[in-house]
Predict the 3D structure of the following.
Amino acid sequence: MIKSPKEEAIERVILRKLKGSTIKDIAEAALRDPEINAYHEYANTVSIKRLKYNDHGPVHMRTVVLNALTLAELLHEAGILLSLEQEETGSYDDSRLAVILAGLLHDIGMCATRMNHENLSASFALPIVSRFLEMLYPKDIRKQILLRGLCIECIVGHMGFVKVNSLEAGIILIADGADMEKGRARIPMLLTHDAKVGDIHQYSSAAIEKLKIVKGEKKPIKIDIEMHSDVGFFQIEQVLFPKLEMSPIKPYVELHATVIGSEVKKYL
């Protein structure tokens, strides 16, 4: 399996974030897992070639993992316990493992269809999640069950159509919605210039120059978005905003967006 330079670059950052962690080896195994990567490749084939939609493959899924780890890290540094820690059922690393597996698997349902793909993703993901949890916790059935449930919540909730309750699932909601920089729509826009339903998502995404997830000024997390055209506000208001509204981590997030050369528009 040959990975693109972009995939490899994102993987290096992911693994750096996990340096010294108990889950680094399992995360590395998941990133190179043949079954997961085959799902990624075919999900992208369906999304881009068949549906003329944007990236739902290996780069997107790795970007969501990286976004999720960054969000979790900022909450952790601010002293905010994730749900497993609050409930005293798991550790910070357990929560990070859940968002890594969910991030890598949340869109594999695109192999079948766009409609209801989050539930299809959960169905396809369940045996894979179980396989990795059995590797890490071979004698701890309780830990396998709770992490399996958390991973599936993250996956079925990532579109914002199902109410999620854990901070971990809220992290995946925002991590997915935050993958909106212009590169994500580049390939389908190169493949066709014919007008069709859904073009606004491609052009609004193409307007987003940079999205950064950093420490906030007043809250633990700041999402800072720069765009070259105000069409990018469609992407923020129609894609990211609904996910942010549904996310249990919303109280910890501030959102800034601006057209380059203009004043910052503060949403939250």
Q: What stands out?
A: The first strand starts at residue 208 and ends at 215. The chain is about 55% helix and 10% strand. Residues 58-77 form the longest helix (20 residues).
